[in-house]
Amino acid sequence: MKQGSRFWAWLVFGVGTTYFVLPLVATFEFSLRKRRGEYSFDAYRSVFEDPNFQATFTYSVVVAVFTILLGVLLVVPTAYWIRLRLPNLRPVVEFITLLPLVIPAIVIVFGYIRMFGSNSTLPFLATARGTDALLVIGYTTLALPYMYRAVDTGLRTIDVRTLTEAAQILGAGWTTIIARIILPNVLIAVLSGAFLSFAIVIGEFTMASLLNRPAFGPYLQNIGANSAYEPSALALISFAITWGCMSLIQILSRFAPRSANRPN
Question: More exposed terminus of the chain, fewer Cβ within 10 Å: N or C?
Fold first, then answer.
């Protein structure tokens, strides 16, 4: 009986692995066919030498960094205060943070365009820097469900109330408590949320395209519409970036403190 169960487990694992790996192998093989009659990395060389690739990827990385910083500044104090003082509001806050998963990005960005157009009270879209700031805000909204849950999970592993009371006894203010006590204790969780945010920003297309920003997502779409082999190379590069972030999350999770099973 046990051998039969093991056989079916390995069979399911093999089928799943084949289903997952085979398209990647086929994509990689196709990306090597740019030079007629032989395999080469010409498609990858063409991608990396393309000035637009360098410019758009750099732009998206910078936007991702600002998105992560804004997400940390917004989520960490909020999740900390909810857990410390307002636990009854936790279901409401969790519901709000889930809304970006329900509301399509195109709806959010059209709302931004209507609210922050050049004729509005806050004309973010009147300047390039204002549009960049609005894009960062939009990406922070998209990443909010992942960042909030990562930080909230990290806060569950520490005794928030005891740490806060000890810091207050020693004369620490709220800013010091959050920046020098709470944040270092949930740093692994914050980094997990940061890598998820990075992966979202790098491949996002809708917001960047409708706000007309030179991001990596629209570049991927443009290459896919006008080239044959470079899109396959870019797909594998994007896949490697995303799975690199996921792997780092798995590595960091090994260093995260285990839950203390405390109510706070």
Answer: N
Out of 3.30.479.30, 1.10.3720.10, 3.40.50.2000, 3.40.50.2300, which CATH number does the structure's domain 50-253 have?
Answer: 1.10.3720.10
**DSSP letters spanning 25-78:** HHHHHHHT-SSTTS--SHHHHHHHH-HHHHHHHHHHHHHHHHHHHHHHHHHHHH
CA 58 to chain centre: 16
According to DSSP, residue 217 is labeled H
How many other C-beta atoms lie within 10 A of the C-beta of residue 140?
Answer: 23
| Calpha distance 46→205 (Å, rounded) | 22
Query: Angle of helix 230-253 relative to helix 187-203, nearest 10 degrees?
Result: 170
Q: Are 238 and 200 in contact (CB under 8 A)?
A: no
* pLDDT, tens only, 9-63: 888 888 888 888 888 888 888 888 888 878 888 888 888 888 898 899 999 999 9
Q: How many CB atoms lie within 10 A of CB 225?
A: 8
Per-residue model confidence as pLDDT tens digits over 206-236 = 999 999 999 988 988 888 777 778 888 888 8
**Angstrom distance (rounded) from CA 210 to CA 119:** 18
Quick one: what percent of the chain has pLDDT higher than 90? Answer: 27
- Residues with Cβ within 8 Å of 147's Cβ and at least 6 positions away in sequence, in order, are 71, 72, 75, 193, 194, 196, 197
DSSP 103-117: S-HHHHHHHHHHHSS
